[in-house]
Design brief:
Radius of gyration of chain A: 35 Å
Distance between the termini of chain B: 21 Å
Largest sheet of chain B: 6 strands, mixed
Mean pLDDT of chain B: 91
Strand order of the largest sheet of chain B: 6-7-8-3-9-10
Strand content of chain A: 15-25%
Helix content of chain A: 40-55%
CATH superfamily of chain B: P-loop containing nucleotide triphosphate hydrolases
Number of helices of chain B: 7
Mean pLDDT of chain A: 77
Oligomer: heterodimer
Radius of gyration of chain B: 17 Å
């Protein structure tokens, strides 16, 4: 009888059922869209972070920032060029290899970090900035005024008695600045570090024997820009490297333009046994915070940045959208859900009120209160499930629409600190070339937003539907259980 | 057999206390056919509620075959209603979404009768009130008289001891009224019921051998020879 009655009620009061169901459907659809969009946001953020870190890195260790000392100028790049005679076409070229952020850790730190509890792997790397300036630098030519007498002299004040009058013309420099990044990779462990976020699309990656080989892997877009191909050589500060592989980043920008073995990078930068960053993989992803504080406590002078820290520094439209999804979206869907539940509950209750005589009659016929209540709750739960099915369909459609459109989001990384590498006083920025900070300090990426739907999201929706039905049923059932059998004798509807 | 002793019922309506029943003593033997009449608000319906175990008296006892309904727990009272008492209401009180047969079946649900048997008994009950052809009709597809017949079938399908009817013809026109009265009379005779009916209709009251009149909460029983 339960099912017959239920079926009949739902079929013959279709409209009322549909109103309750579509209210719930709206709430559930919103939850699905919001949660899938925010998991899409997380994926997008993950991609951004991956592009910095590479896969599998849980945190990085860098040197804690210290204010530069007075007279510490030798770390800043200086370029010296000789001015040449005007008729000389000779190009001059010079490059400076700088350690990114000017802060390094001793290679021994890598081993030390690796020994910490909860650290599964630690790999060091050296990020370099190479600035190459080449071009012509010519002296100005002195041209004497026609009117003033005197012998022709070139340049500078002459030794003659008559003061020559004229002006310097045509002197100057025509040069090109080429700046690129080089990453020194630990070729014995390629599981961690920036190169993991790229795929080798041509050639090969480093061999573990190539610890000091003059080989390089080029980032695909850099290779394209500079027209580099496999087998070509690139010259970094006078050293020639053979390109053995082209790497294409999985998403966004590559971590560096060129990758070379760590030892070579250390030689180039004159930073023997130094690294800029230690990439750390934790044994347990739940213990990241504990590992972070252990490293910071046990190894002084280091800054540990976890993915979570870094995620906080993501700004731009991705971050805005992500905040929107996680805050506004979350509250909006909670509000809509609560409203939907409430409306469903009140509608069910009012439906019970309209059926007072019906339920009173059943009680007069000897139906137990529990049986009547069960009937009401049963109807409400089926309504809820109906709403759930509708809501899931609606939500899936919404999420697919987002994925289909896949709006592009901009992500800016790190400008808000990310471990405070740039926090070392105002003069830290003053270093000639506009202060190449940590590599994370200036990074803009474009990520397409998708709204992936996980099984757990659908599970959540089903749960919500049942909960919505039960809440509505509770309202209605409570009302029904309070009916007296004598209500059957009511004469007014 | 019903034995009512000193039954009172008071309830509050706003600030007023209404004395719906003010000390009713009444004995209704098995197989009796009693008509209860009286002016509106005189306490007819309240008395019917007491007899049907739908409400409890403020004081006094309502014994049905020696069991005081006033003292039974809600669960036991529900059981008494489901087993022993059949109701017929003025406005039929059929479940609008269930068809005739299903409506009759609802009376058998609390008795735990199996579905197949339920259907069979419901069909038989409907046949006995002349609706054998209309098992699958919805209440909205039937006339008032037909609906009331379904209600009578529903009241009697469980073979109760007592049939309580609250103005069963109140919503029907005259031709229907006689038809329903005939059905009820036949059922009473066939089933050996105790048949208690509240009515406004003096024409019906006149035909009844025993009439109880309630005025201002007190009862007087008139017997006709």
């Amino acid at each position: 009888m339960f099912f017959t009655y239920l079926r009949r009620e739902l079929r013959r009061r279709r409209k009322a059922a549909l109103v309750v169901a579509s209210g719930l459907a709206l709430g559930i659809a919103l939850v699905i869209v919001v949660s899938s969009v925010s998991s899409g946001m997380k994926q997008a953020q993950g991609k951004v972070l991956e592009s910095l870190y590479g896969l599998g890195t849980d945190m990085t260790v860098t040197k804690a920032a210290t204010p530069p000392e007075e007279g510490d100028g030798d770390e800043r790049p200086r370029f010296r060029f000789d001015a040449q005679d005007g008729d000389s076409d000779e190009e001059q070229s010079t490059d400076r290899v700088m350690v990114q952020g000017f802060q390094t850790l001793a290679s021994s730190t890598v081993t030390e970090v690796g020994k910490q509890d909860g650290v599964s792997e630690a790999v060091g790397g050296l990020s370099l900035n190479v600035v190459k300036v080449d071009g012509q630098f010519t002296r100005g030519e002195f041209q004497q005024d026609q009117n003033s007498g005197g012998s022709e002299q070139q340049g500078g004040p002459g030794g003659g008695t008559g003061q020559p009058q004229g002006r310097v013309q045509g002197g100057g420099a025509d040069f090109e600045v080429n700046s690129y990044t080089v990453y020194g990779t630990d070729v014995t462990n390629l599981d961690l570090g920036p190169l993991t976020s790229s795929k080798i699309t041509k050639g090969r990656t480093f061999k573990s024997t190539e610890t000091d080989a003059k080989v390089a892997v080029a980032d695909s877009s850099y290779a394209k820009e500079k027209e580099l191909a496999l087998g070509d050589t690139v010259t970094i500060s006078g050293t020639k490297f053979e390109i053995v592989g082209i790497a294409t980043p999985d998403s966004g920008d590559a971590a560096a333009n060129l990758y070379i073995p760590l030892k070579q990078a250390q030689t180039l930068a004159d930073s023997k046994d130094k690294v800029t960053t230690v990439y750390v993989k934790a044994t347990d992803s739940q213990q990241i915070d504990a590992v972070k504080s252990a490293i910071q406590k046990n190894i002084s002078g280091t800054t540990v940045t976890t993915s979570a820290d870094l995620a906080d520094t993501v700004s731009g439209s991705l971050s805005t959208a992500s905040n929107l999804a996680s805050n506004v979206g979350k509250w909006l869907s909670i509000a809509v859900l609560v409203a939907a539940f409430l409306v469903a509950g009140l509608l069910t209750m009012s439906a019970v009120s309209r059926r007072v005589r019906e339920f009173g009659t059943l009680k007069a016929l000897g139906w137990k209160s529990g049986r009547v209540t069960r009937q009401v709750v049963g109807e409400a739960v089926v309504n809820g499930l109906l709403g759930g099915v509708l809501g899931i369909a609606l939500g899936l459609a919404g999420a697919y629409a987002v994925t289909a459109v896949s709006p592009t989001l901009q992500a800016q990384l790190g400008s808000t600190g990310g471990g405070g590498a740039m926090g070392g006083g105002p003069s830290g920025m003053g270093g000639g070339m506009g202060g190449p900070g940590r590599q994370t300090a200036s990074k803009a990426l474009e990520v397409a937003l998708t709204a992936p739907i996980s099984l757990s999201t659908v599970g959540l929706a089903v749960g919500l539907a049942v909960a919505g039905g039960l809440i509505a049923g509770a309202f209605g059932g409570w009302r029904a259980s309070r009916l007296r059998p004598a209500d059957a004798l009511r004469r007014v509807e | 057999m019903y034995e009512l002793r000193g039954v009172t019922k008071q309830y509050r309506r706003g600030k007023e206390t209404v004395h719906a029943l003010a000390g009713v003593d009444l004995t209704i033997p098995d197989g009796d056919r009693l008509v209860i009449q009286g002016p509106t608000g005189g306490g007819k319906s309240t008395l019917l509620q007491m007899l049907g175990g739908l409400d409890r008296p403020t004081s006094g006892s309502v014994e049905l075959d020696g069991t005081d309904l006033a003292k039974l727990s809600e669960a036991k009272l529900t059981k008494v209603r489901s087993e022993s008492i059949g109701f017929v209401f003025q406005s039929f009180n059929l479940i609008p979404t269930l068809n005739a047969q299903e409506n009759v079946e609802t009376a058998l649900v609390p008795l735990g009768v199996k579905a197949a048997e339920r259907r069979e008994r419901a069909a038989e009950a409907l046949k006995s009130v002349g609706l054998g052809e209309r098992l699958t009709h919805l209440p909205s597809e039937m006339s008032g008289g037909q609906q009331q017949r379904v209600a009578i079938a529903r009241a009697l399908v469980k073979q109760p001891k007592v049939l309580l009817a609250d103005e069963p013809t109140g919503n029907l026109d005259e031709s229907m009224r006689d038809e329903i009265m005939d059905v009820l009379e036949t059922m009473w005779k066939e089933h050996g019921l105790t048949f208690i009916m509240v009515t406004h209709d003096s024409a019906i009251a006149k035909k009844a051998p025993r009439v109880a009149t309630i005025r201002k909460g007190t009862i007087t029983v008139t017997e006709r020879a």
